[in-house]
Design a protein that fits this description.
- The chain folds into two domains: about 100 residues, no CATH class; about 130 residues, Reverse transcriptase/Diguanylate cyclase domain (Alpha-Beta Plaits, 2-Layer Sandwich).
- Helices cover about 60% and strands about 10% of the residues.
- It has a four-stranded antiparallel β-sheet, sandwiched between helices.
- The protein is built from nine helices and four strands.
- It has about 250 residues and is an alpha+beta fold.
- It is elongated, with a radius of gyration of 33 Å.
- The two termini are about 55 Å apart.
């Protein structure tokens, strides 16, 4: 943030970002008012005159009554700068948080964030008894795209596949990039619902990229009770499917 620009902009806005909420503005007006009051009181005690006589004798004192306005503008500008700095800090903090939990290429959640959510979902499931499924997804034929068209084209296809997968899932589902051309999806449902989701994902990915996909599913509690056990179960099924289906058709088991 350009601090100089912020300061000039702040002084250019006498009412600041919100005069009612900006305590600095009202604090400045209060302290600015004390200056002429103190000056007149001091002059009264020294000259033994009334306030009106003091003002008539020393008309320059009237200029001091501009202090509340000037002080309010000064303090209000400082409050505006502080407010702008806080907003910028929050924006940067949100940006770093987003970077910490998203994959730089696809914009999906990263592996670390997905694993943290899987752990949380399993803790909740032990209380509620609600099933949880882990789905590992691998793009079939993606290596051929990289080899024939280059990595830039491969990155583009990977991003399109990620968006296609997002279009097939529900808001409560958690989709992330597991690594390379593999994705991981968490769903609070049983195996039947997970298979339906995989079938929607197959159609969406094929329509958007022309590629097929393989998917392996691990279900809590049948296939394991820990994140590692569920991922291992899903990965085992995924490997079996990849070995047995090389005809551009993908199934979920």
């Amino acid at each position: 943030m350009d601090i100089g620009h912020a300061v000039l902009g702040a002084f250019g806005r006498a009412h600041t970002y919100d005069a009612r909420r900006n305590a600095y503005l009202w604090l400045g007006a209060f302290w600015g008012l004390l200056i002429p009051v103190f000056a007149v009181t001091l002059a009264m005690s020294v000259e033994r005159l009334s306030p009106f006589d003091i003002v008539r004798a020393q008309p320059s004192l009237l200029l001091l009554f501009a202090c509340p306005v000037l002080s309010a503008v000064l303090f209000g500008a400082l409050g505006t700068v502080r407010h702008c700095a806080r907003v910028e800090h929050e924006r940067l903090t949100d940006g770093w948080k987003e970077l910490a939990m998203t994959d730089y290429l696809t914009g999906l959640y990263n592996r670390r964030f997905v694993m943290q959510n899987l752990t949380r979902m399993l803790v909740d499931s032990r209380v509620t008894g609600r099933p949880v499924t882990v789905i590992l997804i691998d793009l079939d034929g993606f290596k051929d795209v990289n080899d024939s068209s280059g990595h830039l084209e491969g990155d583009r296809v990977l991003c399109e596949a990620a968006q296609a997968l997002k279009s097939a899932m529900r808001r409560t589902d958690i989709l992330g990039r597991y690594g390379g051309d593999e994705f991981i999806l968490l769903k609070a449902s049983d195996r039947t619902a997970a298979v339906r989701l995989v079938n929607r994902a197959i159609a969406a990915v094929r329509e958007n990229t022309g590629l097929a996909l393989c998917a392996g599913i691990g279900c809590w509690p049948q296939d394991g009770t820990s994140p590692e056990e569920l991922i291992e179960a899903a990965d085992t099924r995924l490997l079996k499917l990849k070995r047995s289906h090389h005809d551009a058709k993908s199934l979920a088991r």
